[in-house]
Amino acid sequence: MLSFFWLRCLLKMVKGNIIVPEDILNFCCNGLQGSTSPPRAREPGEWEEAPGAMASPPAAHNPTEVQMSQLVLPCHTNHRGELSTGQLLKWIDTAACLSAERHAGCPCVTASMDDIYFEHTISVGQVVNIKAKVNRAFNSSMEVGIQVSYEDLCSGKHCSICKAYATFVAQGPLGSKVRLEPLIPQTEEEKIEYSIAAERRRMRLVHKDTLKDLLTSSPQETELETRDGSGAVPAERTRVESVELVLPPHANHQGNTFGGQIMAWMENVATIAASRLCHAHPTLRAIEMFHFRGPSQVGDRLVLKAIVNNAFKNSMEVGVSAEAYGQEMSVSRRHINSAFMTFVVLDQQGQPRTLPMVAPEPGDGERRYREASARKKIRLDRKYVVSCKQTEVPLSVPWDQSNKVYLSYNNVSALKMLVAKANWALAREKEKVRMYTLEEDKFLSFRIEMSVCIPASRAFSLLSNLRRRHEWDSHYVSAELVQKVDDDDMIYHVVSQKLRNESKPQDFVILASRRKPCSKGDPYVVAFRSVTLPTHPARAEFTRGETLCSGFCIWPESQEMSKVAYYNQAMPGYLTYVTTNVAGLSSDICSTFEACEKFLLKNKEDLISRLQDF
Predict the structure, then answer these.
(1) Phi then psi for 566, rounded to 5 degrees?
(2) What does the pLDDT read at residue 214?
(3) CB 344, CB 299: distance < 8 Å
(4) Are 282 and 346 in contact (CB under 8 A)?
(5) Backbone phi and psi for residue 546, each to the nearest 5 degrees, phi listed first
(6) What pTM was computed for the model?
(7) Are 507 and 544 in contact (CB under 8 A)?
(8) Are 141 and 169 in contact (CB under 8 A)?
(9) Whole-number CA gyration radius for the chain
């Protein structure tokens, strides 16, 4: 007699060719065992329903979501019995690609992978869980968000490993671009990711310019760090060059070299270069943006190069590149990919060890040395200004040219996250003006909105100019333009009226970032947050105020009508004023917004402000 296990397997094989409903399949296997079989154990996180309770409807499922679970076997690990980062990159790329192709309905290729910070290592016997889903589709490219965690099957422990964002491009016949259908987010989390994806895309496009600007403003001379107890190691000693022949197992389902495989090979040579500096086994902590510049195919030879660019006190940066050529050596090599990886060496307590210094070679070596220092600053800016939660970021972050891209990103994304929150409650309504509140653990936010007979682009032009705000907002005394960063970002010094029970007026140094819609359905955005400038320190005659997150969103309702909404995450000094208005004990906020409407209607035909903008 067949065992129940093999009978179930046989029925599943039959199920692949004949329609066998799942309930019949379960009956065949479970019914034969009799009613004395023990009940199935619940999975971690699975709810037990009370008798007679109605089953709750399943949550909305993103059709692009892909989940992958992999058991870490010895063949996946390094000498320490930990999952190889190269193998993890393969799995990440595979899951992300499958998600992208679910949305596109056609083959997709990896264009880039954003910074990845690895929080923990994964041991043999544990399970890697990867969840990937498309956050937003643009014209022919899309952003895929990836979350990686591990699961210990013995203890039931779950822990986050990393979060990544990958960009994929849809390809039609002969490599032609495919225009993608827009993605409609459903949940609050999806709406937030959808909204901020446009800002992340903008940040990727200006990454090179950010590095170039930082290097231009830095001293040109290479200054070697002095570190006690070790001599400088020539960078050339760490250089690695390795060649790989692309075979059919290395290709994806489209015939090109699998992007995850290229990333794994790059991680391998980078690890060797790092080992040559420290004479130990390093641990990969972060990867800075993989950027695929072109495809390679089966039969190509991939030349992988790596060298330690700079060694800081406890970490080192390794630059790595991949080039491809065919059978003919005379043909010039094609640049396929490049990336920068940060390694540390851990002691027995798991703490980073002090590393030897690096002595760069004159010329290109010194250039790479300086660029590594600039990239370290950019990584810190991205990690602590962009990636951190709003409550973990100081209110008034110091402003300088090197972090302008990330502060601007943080400014706009914070407002978009506030807009996408789902629990806004209508607090009061006065004629056309509606006031909503959002109560969270640490913040009380309010939103006030109304429909105005003005084109959205005109309202955007008028409201993004803080120098004209005093014309409708009685709280503003003046707004001086301090610095024009670019066409979309300005820094103002704002002076406001005295608050009740205050002896001095307030002043603010505010970064104003504005964005036009990225695609149909997006609002015009004007975001405000506080920054600090050395040229405008706090002064005795003012009380220095701060704003964490505020701004306007303007949605076109028709060619001549717009919905104008103002959002503000109330700070402690402003809280009493807000709660008084929310409770109906004052109508000052509603009256101010009504004055805003009159200002917009009065100036909607003014063509000069369309050109001035700021």
Answers:
(1) -115, 135
(2) 65
(3) no
(4) no
(5) -140, 145
(6) 0.71
(7) yes
(8) yes
(9) 28
